[in-house]
């Protein structure tokens, strides 16, 4: 018997991608329900060749599904997830609401699939932050081989990380600038077209942003609590695809050549690293891809056992929808999607 699925947030940037990926990967769904807010009731979204009509979450009976792929923001998740799990379904949540809950597994399937077993505690699995996910896929093999002590990274995050509204703002602003029509920023704090904004999510007391804090804490939970990580997260005028420049200190030596060979054979990764013009990955080229791409693999001679990487992935796919569907596949393969 297949799985009865609901996508909660189906009109959003991530929700639409979830539907595409469920269909592309032939997820064994017996039924797919598409849910959004009241204002989207009846709105149509695509699932392969089929067109599905959105249902208002307020009127949906969650006891009729086994799995809810939730992608409607933290506050909505905090309100709805307890009600959904009480109705017996399992929630794979894309927001940051449950990630640091010790009874909720935080999973990147290529990195810590064994953590999925913990779903039995609260019937929730959390999908990590988009930048964290692609970083984890690249760091895991290096950590297993040479033990990572410290990571210093800078992210270059696309506007789709701020949802449909972020993409609309970049599009409108870019067009507007050419006709001298300056609209005030709404989705971002400053102009994003032709600019870079060193600020994602709210500021914290120590001057870091929550986006940076999430990368630190989620890395500890997923990979190793001993890893020290420092991040600077910036928004760049790219529609889809996040990039990370990561500077890594290892306990044991690992040459760039060894790292290249290791990453080449590791799950979820593609190495594109030719020392020539264009021999590296850019975010635009990652759009629509499943893989996390690693380029510019170099030894960093300024620290002992230092290694530098350029990591790129489609944030709506591996950074969100794909990882969530992989989690669902992992739960299903382990027989963990049974109703409670
Ligand atoms: N974009 C990314 O790269 C990543 C996003 N995420 C997380 O995924 C989630 C969604 O992101 P994204 O798709 O980009 O956001 P969007 O703003 O594009 O979409 C939000 C979705 O949530 C629905 N929604 C919002 N409020 C409610 C409500 N009260 N009741 C029912 N449905 C509601 C919206 O429905 P309606 O259209 O009816 O308002 C819409 O379908 C967020 O938690 C975000 O933090 C996580 C990792 C990466
Ligand atoms: N904050 C990320 C996307 C996101 O929603 O992350 P999170 O789920 O950790 O809040 C970005 O803007 O690119």
From TrEMBL:
UniProt key word Ribosomal protein: no
CDD domains reported in the protein's UniProt record: ASADH_C_bac_euk_like (cd18131), VcASADH2_like_N (cd02316)
Keyword NADP attached: yes
EC number: 1.2.1.11
Family annotation (Pfam families): Semialdhyde_dh (PF01118), Semialdhyde_dhC (PF02774)
UniProt cross-references to InterPro entries, sorted A to Z: Asp_semialdehyde_DH (IPR012080), Asp_semialdehyde_DH_beta (IPR005986), NAD(P)-bd_dom_sf (IPR036291), Semialdehyde_DH_NAD-bd (IPR000534), Semialdhyde_DH_dimer_dom (IPR012280)
Keywords: Amino-acid biosynthesis, Diaminopimelate biosynthesis, Lysine biosynthesis, Methionine biosynthesis, NADP, Oxidoreductase, Threonine biosynthesis
Listed GO biological process terms: 'de novo' L-methionine biosynthetic process; diaminopimelate biosynthetic process; isoleucine biosynthetic process; lysine biosynthetic process via diaminopimelate; threonine biosynthetic process
Pathway(s) the chain acts in: Amino-acid biosynthesis; L-threonine biosynthesis; L-threonine from L-aspartate: step 2/5; Amino-acid biosynthesis; L-methionine biosynthesis via de novo pathway; L-homoserine from L-aspartate: step 2/3; Amino-acid biosynthesis; L-lysine biosynthesis via DAP pathway; (S)-tetrahydrodipicolinate from L-aspartate: step 2/4
Binding of substrate, residues: 157, 235
Catalytic function, reaction form: L-aspartate 4-semialdehyde + phosphate + NADP(+) = 4-phospho-L-aspartate + NADPH + H(+)
Highest taxon, organism lineage: Bacteria
Binding site for phosphate: 99
Residues binding NADP(+): 11-14, 39-40, 160-161, 315
List of catalytic residues: 130, 242
MF-aspect GO terms: aspartate-semialdehyde dehydrogenase activity; NAD binding; NADP binding; protein dimerization activity
Residues covered by the Semialdehyde dehydrogenase NAD-binding domain: 4-119
Family: Belongs to the aspartate-semialdehyde dehydrogenase family.
Subunit-level organization: Homodimer.
Function: Catalyzes the NADPH-dependent formation of L-aspartate-semialdehyde (L-ASA) by the reductive dephosphorylation of L-aspartyl-4-phosphate.
Protein name as catalogued: Aspartate-semialdehyde dehydrogenase
Protein species of origin: Maricaulis salignorans
């Amino acid at each position: 018997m297949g799985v009865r699925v609901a996508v909660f947030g189906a009109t959003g940037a991530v929700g639409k991608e979830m539907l595409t990926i469920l269909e592309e990967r032939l997820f064994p769904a017996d039924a797919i329900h598409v849910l959004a807010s009241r204002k989207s009731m009846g709105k149509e979204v695509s699932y392969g060749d089929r067109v599905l009509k959105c249902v208002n979450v307020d009127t949906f009976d969650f006891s009729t599904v086994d799995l809810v792929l939730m992608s409607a923001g933290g506050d909505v998740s905090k309100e709805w997830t307890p009600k959904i799990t009480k109705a017996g379904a399992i929630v794979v949540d894309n927001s940051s609401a449950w990630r640091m809950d010790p009874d909720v597994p935080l999973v990147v399937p290529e990195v810590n699939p064994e953590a999925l077993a913990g779903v039995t505690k609260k019937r929730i699995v959390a999908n990590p932050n988009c930048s964290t996910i692609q970083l984890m896929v690249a760091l895991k093999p290096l950590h297993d081989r040479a033990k990572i002590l410290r990571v210093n990274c800078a992210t270059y995050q696309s506007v789709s990380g701020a949802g449909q509204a972020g993409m609309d703002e970049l599009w409108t602003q870019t067009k507007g600038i050419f006709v001298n029509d300056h609209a005030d920023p709404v989705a971002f704090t400053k102009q994003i077209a032709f600019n870079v904004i060193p600020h994602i999510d709210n500021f914290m007391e120590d001057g870091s942003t929550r986006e940076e804090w999430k990368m630190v804490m989620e890395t500890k939970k997923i990979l190793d609590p001993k890893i020290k990580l420092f991040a600077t997260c910036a928004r760049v005028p790219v529609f889809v695809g996040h990039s990370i420049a990561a500077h890594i200190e290892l306990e044991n030596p690992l040459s760039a050549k060894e790292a290249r060979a290791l990453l080449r054979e590791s799950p979820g990764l593609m190495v594109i690293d030719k020392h020539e013009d264009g021999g590296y990955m850019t975010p635009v080229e990652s759009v629509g891809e499943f893989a996390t791409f690693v380029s510019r693999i170099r030894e960093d001679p300024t620290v002992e056992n230092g290694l530098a990487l350029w990591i790129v992935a489609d944030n709506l796919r591996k950074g969100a929808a794909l990882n969530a569907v992989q989690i669902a596949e992992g739960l299903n393969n382990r027989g963990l999607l049974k109703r409670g």
